[in-house]
Design brief:
about 220 residues; alpha+beta; Glutaredoxin; Glutathione S-transferase Yfyf (Class Pi), Chain A, domain 2; 2 domains; 9 helices; about 5% strand; globular
């Protein structure tokens, strides 16, 4: 099995964490995103030229949530998806809120962080909406994880984004005590520590982040 990813990719980290949590011995193939994602070889795997890409015994999967579903179905132990209907809905709900609500809000904040001009009212609006998402997560967290007693894809998908909010955007998590305690627990997991980019890696990647955000519009 090969995972084509970049350590600074939020989506790629979701998959890398899941593989480590399941104890799957995958080859991590670095994609520098400096043009190597546009080579004919990479485009043959993913014509949309983004990471992650998973190749398992000749079977190729793109899109991080689809990859997570494949991993769970193909390698069900230990489980990262519950089986009880309400718990399944909770995991999917957290995933979708993260993808459709939180992720778009992060782009203006990231642009401002790397020196791209963003109107003040846009930053104010996204900050307010991000607080709404964080409060939603705060309300749905159990004493340990989103699904009480079980670490799931919900924790992975939400957690990797919280890392960006906390470490890169400087969002204050103290108004959200459940999130703060949960994030501390995530940060101590071996899978989290192994996939956490170093400050040096982040600094080296900033020019590429800026270029990508400028293209994003």
């Amino acid at each position: 099995m090969q995972l084509y990813t970049n350590r600074l990719s939020n989506n790629g980290r979701r998959v890398h964490v899941a593989l480590l949590e399941k104890g799957i011995d995958a080859e991590i193939v670095p994609v520098q995103l400096n043009g190597d994602q546009l080579t004919p070889e990479f485009l043959a795997m993913n014509p949309f030229h983004h990471v992650p890409v998973l190749v398992d015994d000749g079977f190729t999967v793109i899109e991080s949530l689809a990859i997570l579903d494949y991993i769970e179905a193909q390698y069900p132990t230990p489980p990262l998806m519950p089986t009880e209907p309400k718990a399944i809905a909770r995991v999917r709900m957290i995933e979708m809120v993260q993808v459709h609500e939180m992720t778009p809000l992060m782009y203006p904040q990231l642009k401002a962080k790397v020196g791209i001009e963003v109107p003040a009212e846009v930053l104010e609006q996204t900050t307010t909406k991000m607080a709404t998402v964080l409060q939603f997560h705060e309300q749905h967290l159990g004493e340990d994880f989103f699904v009480p007693g079980q670490f799931t894809f919900a924790d992975i998908v939400a957690g990797v984004s919280i890392t960006i909010l906390d470490a890169f955007l400087g969002v204050d998590l103290t108004p959200y005590p459940r999130i703060s305690a949960w994030y501390d627990r995530l940060s101590s997991r071996p899978s989290w520590e192994a996939t956490q980019p170093t400050p040096m890696e982040v600094m080296a990647f900033l020019p590429r982040i800026r270029t990508a955000l400028q293209r994003h519009g």
